[in-house]
Amino acid sequence: GSVASGVGGVMSLFSKAAAGRGGHTERAFELGERLDVLCQVSQPSIIPHMADFEGKRFPYEVIFRNVHKLLVDTASSEFLFCLDFWEEETVFGELFGPVVAVVEGDLNEQLQNQHDVLCVLLMIRLNSEHRRLMARRRIPCLDDYLDRINLVLWPRFKVLFDVQASSIRPGVERSLFTGQVEVNALTRRYAAFAASCLALVADHDSDDSIFKASSFYEMLERLWASVFDTLLRMSNMFKDRRQGIIFLILNYNHIKATLRAADSSVAQRISSASGSGSGSKAPQQQQQQQQQQQASAQGAAAGGLGTAGAAAIKECEDQLAACTSLYVEDQLGSHFKQLLEFVKKAEQAQKRGGVQEGQPITGFTPAEAAPVLRDFGGRWKASIEAMHREVLGQVVESACAREVLQASMTQLLLYYTRMLELVKRQGPEGTALAREVVNIPAIMYEIKRITKA
User: Fold this and answer.
1) What is the tens place of the pLDDT at every residue in 23-53?
2) Among 234, 339, 373, 378, which is most exposed with the fewest C-beta within 10 angstroms?
3) Structure pTM?
């Protein structure tokens, strides 16, 4: 009927066809309001004929929730009635077995045409919530059925997930590479997909009889490793090394920003759910709501996306920091090559020779440092302005550009500080030289002036 939505397929994350579509294909992997279905587990069921009359259409996970809400509520009342009237459980199986068989058969049929991996993951989560609901009611009549549903849903989810993961293979970077230093379509789709998956399991950081969190996280880690390798191969396709580094910075920054936004959104949802009043609800309903809220709070203790989400964000931040460091070293090397080489070689010589404080470092004495410091003092302002223009011109995302620029300026100050320390430690001559050259506060003032302009 018109109440049900179609169960058509969803594109592969990294297929050549999807890459050619352009636009915002990542929206197919964003949850949006679909996540609300997990907050509606205990809500009344949809009345089919009313929804049909109003012309409403729902994604399949909403229909799944609706059917199973009716099933668990009806089964609960009928099971208790059978116990009270016949004082045995076998009668319930004889009476309710055909109903369960119809529901199970329809689900098996629908799953064969279901290609939406997020829909199946939502159904796994809903099935887990229904299992918990029946456990709280202490009614075991649907335990076997819910276990069978899990055994049907999990393999289907793994098949659909593997379709996405298998589309990332050596050589796919050639069809995805655009030659532009920008966030790639692969990154946009992966970020949306990973954020959606992590949001769905935020409060399921540990295994239970229905949801196997560890298995899910292993699958997601393999997917991330494949994406990481593909991005790295694409970065190597740029003729200019710095362009390849900037490409990685932009893409890792996008993944980090997407995951952080999802983390904040889920945390807000959990906080909102915890803060909603239970006022006129019955004591049993209040207790059930409190138990759900406690489970969500425990799972999201490390953030809205839970411990797995926090680990994913940390991994992305580490990769971003490593790429930013490469960019910074490359940029400083092009503007302050003499300074960097002197500092690095002098520190190595000091360490190898075991030079004590107050003693000259052979080959790197204050007299030999003086030309380097004079060169720095004559052009440091112009070089800082040039670095500022470079970053803004090369890193197109403004927030990311600010972070990269800050990293470059910070590293410059560190190199210059190390240079002055090397000079000062070589006795009075070095101390006198350090007083004559540009001081660090002057450099910091100029950096603030330029970066705020």
Assistant:
1) 456 777 888 888 888 888 888 788 877 877 7
2) 378
3) 0.83
